[in-house]
């Protein structure tokens, strides 16, 4: 079986794209990123870092809710 350790990846470029355009964040030292003040709707989150396969996930944002995405980048 394949065993691997998950760890935070600082410096990941994270792009959030929705109907009104896109916004980019860089993951901090803990591998975290945050987009605030979003309008309700559907978005696509894409995370990229050199040497890894890009990660992409669709996410729906609702009024008053917090959406969490756990991006996993594979070598």
- From N to C, what is the helix and strand string? EEEE
Percent in strands = 35-45%
Let me know the largest β-sheet: 4 strands, antiparallel
Which value, in Å, is the CA radius of gyration? 13 Å
User: Could you list the spans in which at least 5 consecutive residues all have pLDDT below 50?
Assistant: none
Structural class assignment = mainly beta
Strand order of the largest sheet: 2-1-3-4
How does the overall form come out from the CA principal axes? elongated
- Helix % is under 10%
Number of strands: 4
- Report the mean per-residue pLDDT as an integer: 92
SS summary, helix count: 0
**For the terminal residues, how far apart are their CA atoms?**
17 Å
Q: What topology does this entry show?
A:
Layout: E1 13-18, E2 21-26, E3 41-48, E4 55-61
Antiparallel strand pairs: 1-2, 1-3, 3-4
Description:
- The model has no long low-confidence stretch (mean pLDDT 92).
- Strands 2-1-3-4 form a four-stranded antiparallel beta sheet, with no helix packed on it.
- With 75 residues, the protein is mainly β.
Throw out a few tags for this protein.
elongated; 0% helix; 75 residues; mainly beta; four-stranded antiparallel sheet
Quick summary:
The chain has 75 residues and is mainly beta. The chain is built from no helices and four strands.
